[in-house]
Amino acid sequence: xxxxxxxxxxxxxxxxxxxxxxxxxxxxxxxxxxxxxxxxxxxxxxxxxxxxxxxxxxxxxxxxxxxxxxxxxxxxxxxxxxxxxxxxxxxxxxxxxxxxxxxxxxxxxxxxxxxxxxxxxxxxxxxxxxxxxxxxxxxxxxxxxxxxxxxxxxxxxxxxxxxxxxxxxxxxxxxxxxxxxxxxxxxxxxxxxxxxxxxxxxxxxxxxxxxxxxxxxxxxxxxxxxxxxxxxxxxxxxxxxxxxxxxxxxxxxxxxxxxxxxxxxxxxxxxxxxxxxxxxxxxxxxxxxxxxxxxxxxxxxxxxxxxxxxxxxxxxxxxxxxxxxxxxxxxxxxxxxxxxxxxxxxxxxxxxxxxxxxxxxxxxxxxxxxxxxxxxxxxxxxxxxxxxxxxxxxxxxxxxxxxxxxxxxxxxxxxxxxxxxxxxxxxxxxxxxxx
Length: 435
What we know:
Blueprint: H1 3-13, H2 15-21, H3 40-49, H4 71-82, H5 87-116, H6 122-135, H7 137-141, H8 147-164, H9 170-186, H10 189-205, H11 208-233, H12 243-252, H13 261-267, H14 275-283, H15 285-302, H16 304-319, H17 327-331, H18 334-343, H19 346-357, H20 365-383, H21 388-391, H22 395-411, H23 414-419, H24 421-424, H25 428-434
Helix pairs in contact: 1-2, 3-4, 4-5, 5-6, 5-8, 5-22, 6-22, 8-10, 8-20, 9-10, 9-11, 10-11, 10-20, 12-15, 14-15, 15-16, 16-20, 19-22, 20-22
């Protein structure tokens, strides 16, 4: 009997086995997509491995591309070379790296909590961490995409901001700038996060010259990729080209501002048989994106209120009200959807608690850095395009916001004040006045 046949027979006789082994815990349903490897990312990596250059993001010979940023495809191409072109080998290594990054994120959380608050212990932070891993279980343990490398980028950024003093000396400013350039080449969202937080460090330390050095080093790091794009496409593309499509997709293809699986399945140019895919193949990447830009501008200009409504939907979907990407599937599991929606807004509420109590207790620099990263990371997504995968790399940031907020709330326990005898005594100055 084959392994798959044996397992099928086992789950038929004992349905609870599927409940235990195959999330989403439904009989004969397996949502494991660890061979996904970021779709466009692994396709470009395959083209690099085969000597075709940075090309072919959509599983067909579409030619040179700048659709995705270059760092992850380069890493995957290196893993393909190590594995002699075997994607299963690449998948196994990426799963290992993803788990390793999650462990490192947990260590970072415990370290920062231990150094910034004494009101909550490591067990509270660990509990919040586990809860958030469960909320994003599928994205961390059933899918391989770019979430792990974006999370690693944010972790390294927080480490540098919390302990590194990146603008203290000339050589550290230069290294910080190179690191920033690599972050941006990993995910363009890091341009705003790294740039905004580096500016905050420069203002805090009044290190204007070293701030300029870090910015110059970041620009120099970006230059080779930007030059390549200019030579290939005859236009300046600092990181990746598909922003116009992201805007068009959210504004013209969605009933609301949040992307969903149905949109990807029926309209994305990934499939050559779809209308968007045929248009991409016919026009080429740049002409295709120019057309999408025109369509977005026309739609937003004709009805600016609709654009604002969609941006509002994205704000709520990124902060307060969980909207799953696969809405049909999640609707069949109302208890899972309900629990996720209960947990989802807690990090944003934690941020409000930290800001609301900062007038009584000054924020630690690390806490201010985490708040800054959270806001700078989400702001472009709210303006352009968002769905749940984009928020997954904020794992460490969200856990820290919740843990610190719990600590702040414990400091203002009314029953603690009432049970404290000193809080019930009359100050000496008041006694003297009364007498």
